[in-house]
Specification:
2 domains; 20% strand; 5-stranded antiparallel beta sheet; Jelly Rolls; Glycosyltransferase; single chain; alpha+beta
């Protein structure tokens, strides 16, 4: 089923290949293998749709974790004419990769179809659609664009299944984005139903591992900040606390302390404390936050980990690391301020640390309103997800009276808007860090639903303030 909007049309592909379900593919989706022989995609469209389009792009969604680099050839089926190449690096399920289709070739694309084949790399899984047949952006499609994207498009896409991500920190960013901008609970319920059925969490995680009522890493705890306040939230509070208790007795110097944990650990723990009254959760939230303040922050910014990444590097002043730290700490402070327990002394320490980092970041905002992928290295280029997360944190800090950053957040929103596709998908995002610092420093960018979630949080928090 094609999906139309005033500014775009998506023509879903009919895939000339066997589509299967698999334990490494998200629940409720089908996928097929793309290899050197390729997969043929065919589209049904009209001359009027082609004629009204300003631009066209082929998009393909990834079906499971791809921890390598690939080059994909996109050619016409009829004569092998090359239409373009997709540069795919270290992708994960639901991630969209695109190649622009020349207008002159559109008629042939509709008549003949295209072949997508691996030119460099191993075979990989491509999502082909949902088992229930519903159309979303997360299936192969041809996007015909009439105009540019804007915030209304992004909000609409976030509040739909177009923004699905693997359950964990990626989907956590999205559902918190939904909460920030949705007019009702329908979009959130739709997302959560993808992973929780009859009270059981059943999902395929970022690494392609199916998990039932468990998560693979502490970073995957983020969605529980949304789930704990809901009916049945006691289960998710216990799961979160049990996961954190498993580290009790370990020397913090023996494991990697990350900036992500400010958002994915300290924030959910604070929510658990606020909604259950658990003193343990409050104490652990504060301890996790203060540990990161002591270990990661300094006069020269932020080193978002205490041990080198398995793929290499410490990511000093990486924008998304700053986003995790600033946004996570802002949410911890906001939650702790709202409880009856006297935490004035602890809040004073957390707020001082937050203000210091916010001021450091405000001094390094780019002229385009965004922050560079490595904040103090403009040569690494603007990066949208880190910028969105930083802006969201600044917006919350402004609400709390910690800073007055409305002008800076407004500039960030203006800077993000040109990176929004007509159908609301956000580009300009650095890939998740499975490829090491080399993947981050040299300008490689992707489209990302996780980035959309952070952007929605920035937009929603700005307008809420």
């Amino acid at each position: 089923m094609r999906i139309n909007d005033d500014r775009w049309t998506r023509l879903p592909a009919a895939v000339d290949a066997v589509a299967v379900t698999d334990d490494q593919v998200p629940q409720g989706w089908t996928a097929t293998t793309v290899d050197e022989a390729g997969v043929v995609l065919r589209f049904a469209g009209s001359a009027d749709e082609i004629g009204s389009a300003d631009a066209a792009a082929l998009r393909i969604p990834i079906g499971s974790d791809c921890r390598a680099q690939y080059l994909l050839d996109v050619t016409l089926v009829s004569d092998g004419t090359r239409l373009g190449t997709i540069d795919l690096r270290y992708a994960h399920a639901f991630e969209l990769f695109a190649v622009d289709i020349p207008r002159a070739a559109l008629a042939s694309v509709l008549t003949d179809g295209v072949r997508v084949a691996v030119a460099t790399g191993e075979p990989f899984a491509m999502l082909t659609g949902r088992v229930d047949g519903r159309a979303t952006a997360c299936q192969p499609h041809l996007l015909l664009s009439r105009g540019t994207g804007d915030w209304s498009a992004l909000v609409g896409a976030v509040c739909s299944l177009d923004s699905l991500q693997p359950f964990g920190w990626l989907e956590g960013c999205v559902i918190e984005g939904i909460t920030a901008v949705a007019e009702d609970s329908a979009a959130l319920e739709e997302h959560l139903a993808e992973y929780i059925r009859d009270g059981v969490l059943d999902h395929v995680d970022l690494h392609g591992v199916r998990r039932i009522d468990q998560v693979g890493t502490t970073e995957a705890l983020l969605p529980f900040a949304t789930l704990v306040p809901r009916s049945g939230g006691e289960k998710w509070a216990r799961l979160t606390l049990d996961r954190i208790r498993a580290r009790d007795g370990r020397d913090p110097d023996s494991y990697d302390i990350t900036a992500e944990g400010m958002y994915t650990i300290a924030h959910p723990l604070a929510v658990i404390g606020a909604h259950t009254g658990s003193r343990e959760a409050f104490d652990r939230a504060i301890a996790e936050a203060e540990l990161r303040i002591a270990k990661l922050a300094g006069a020269d910014g932020l080193t978002p980990r205490t041990k080198p990444c398995p793929w290499g590097g410490m990511y000093h002043n990486w924008a998304r690391g700053h986003a995790w730290y600033l946004l996570g700490l802002a949410k911890v402070i906001r939650t702790l301020r709202g409880v009856e327990r006297d935490l004035s002394e602890e809040l004073g320490r957390l707020e001082s640390a937050w203000i210091a980092m916010a001021r450091w970041l405000l001094d390094r905002q780019g002229g385009d309103g965004l922050w560079a992928c490595y904040v103090d290295e403009p040569v690494t280029g603007a990066e949208t997800s880190g910028s969105a997360g930083i802006a969201a944190g600044l917006a919350i800090g402004t609400q709390l009276g910690l800073v007055d950053a409305r002008t800076a957040v407004a500039a960030a929103l203006d800077g993000l808007e040109p990176h929004i596709d007509p159908d609301g998908i956000l580009g300009g995002v650095s890939q998740h860090n499975a490829g090491g610092e080399g993947l981050q420093r040299f300008g490689y960018r992707v489209r990302s639903q996780m980035g959309m979630g952070l952007a929605a949080q920035a937009y929603g928090e700005f307008h809420a303030g």
